[in-house]
Amino acid sequence: MGGRQPAGSEAGVADLPRSGAFSGGGVPVGFWREPWGTQGEAPPGGPRLEGVACPHCREPAAIALPDGNGWCAACGGLVAPTGAGEVICRSCALPHASPRSRWHACAGGAELAGAITDSGRGVASQIRALLARRWGMVHAPAAACYVAAVRATVAAGATGEVIFMATAEPLILALPDRTLVLGTGGIAALEDEAQLAFVLCREESLARHGWIARRYRAVAPAGFWSLWRRRDDPSLAYAVDLSSRVGFGAEAEQLADREAIGALVAADYDPQAGGRALALLDHASQATVRFRLSRVRSRLLGRTLADIGRPALARLNREVYRRAFASLRDSLH
Length: 333
Hints:
It is a single chain. The two termini are 24 Å apart. A hairpin with a 5-residue loop joins strand 3 (78-79) and strand 4 (85-88). The protein has 2 domains: 28-106, no CATH class; 111-332, no CATH class. Helix 4 (193-208) packs across helix 7. The protein has helices spanning 118-134, 141-154, 184-189, 193-208, 211-218, 234-245, 249-266, 272-284, 294-308, 318-324, 326-332; strands at 62-64, 70-72, 78-79, 85-88, 95-97, 137-138, 162-165, 172-174, 180-183. With 333 residues, the protein is α+β, with helices and mostly antiparallel strands. Helices cover 40% and strands 8% of the residues. The relative contact order is 0.16. The chain has a 5-stranded antiparallel sheet with strand order 1-2-3-4-5, with no helix packed on it. It is built from 11 helices and 9 strands.
């Protein structure tokens, strides 16, 4: 899938270079999971997961991810290094064994309030440093202002810094302090402002429902943010990798899709842009699976569109989008 340009994409932002693929990191295989099989027996992680039967749908379509986990190319289900099925837990937003198996003791907890403490902002600062070391930050203040303005329009006045990373993957990542991280590959994949508004609204939905806060809380349950003092804590890298590579599970991601479609209609954007954005992000995904198979979700949005209808204007703002990211393209060159 690597290196392909979206069909019908225009010159300009679609010409952004796709460089800097995701480099590994994270925690050792089996972290946050119970031992598998007989004591001392090696789990079938890594290449041994390739092509094995998915524990969710039984199709021989498992694909190994760089951190030892797996993902099913047929149904999108998560596969542990042991070969067992996993789902994203509602309480802690981390992968656990599926309900058909056994549940790990959950490190999450109750829903979190929207307020972010000073130490929580420190966590976000450490994440920014981690991402900058992996990919390199791209300085594009004009493009950041444009994204912030679109975000505030469609997401009920949401605020937070916008930063760009030089990665070919369609990286879209909200941090605990509401900072929004966008990869240049994602910007290159999208075609217009309506599609951008859709993906921004999706991240706001995940933040509003507490998924982002719960995930970072779960990796440091004692004292919440207070343990985040070490610069290279592997638990932090694990949470970042999980968020950027895998996302938050089918339930959370599909709810984010639906709420984002409603936000597009309320802001007079063309709601059809939502399904198109998901298909383009799926096409652009190379080393991550968060948006893989999202073309299937884009078709499921048809029922939501039928219920919501189309706004009077149904704007796309394609030329505005291209001009806004000219400075980002120039900075990469």
